[in-house]
Amino acid sequence: MSIWKKPISLQALQDAQTNTAASHLGIEITEIGPDFLRGRVPVDARTKQPFGLLHGGVSVVLAESLGSMGAYHACPEGHHAVGLEINANHIRSATQGWVTGTARAVHIGRSTHVWQIDLVNEDGQLTCTSRLTMAILAPR
């Protein structure tokens, strides 16, 4: 059963990122499932820190982008989702290729959502795990 309450498509998600931090970092939305969103970020000159590793902040941008889009599309028409809190545990570094994130709802409530976003490298190894809490705002 799908959790999406608003129309959702890969093209619409990509279009919404135009001229945003996510687009400047090369983040791509790659898959929509019945209860998850998946996207990826390249590990390149835009996204590495001075020691050649994927910047931890970029992992958080990917996580928050996926969780925020998921929360927005999983809340009723007319409602909006805004971030309340995010945390991230950086488990393993990435130095090349792509890091892929999968966002799944842990809790979808009337006024809050909690999303779990796990990021993996191209070998499927966990690089970061993040938890995002979103406030759901009713129409004014």
Automatic annotation (TrEMBL):
Which InterPro entries did the record assign?
HotDog_dom_sf, PAAI_dom, Thioestr_dom
Give a yes or no for keyword Cell cycle in this entry. Answer: no
Which terms in the Gene Ontology molecular function aspect does this entry carry? Answer: 1,4-dihydroxy-2-naphthoyl-CoA thioesterase activity
Give residue ranges for domain Thioesterase: 51-128
Cellular compartments per GO CC: cytosol
**One Pfam entry name:** 4HBT
Q: Which UniProt keywords apply?
A: Hydrolase
To which protein family does this belong?
Belongs to the thioesterase PaaI family.
Q: What is this protein called?
A: Uncharacterized protein (TIGR00369 family)
Species of the source: Extensimonas vulgaris
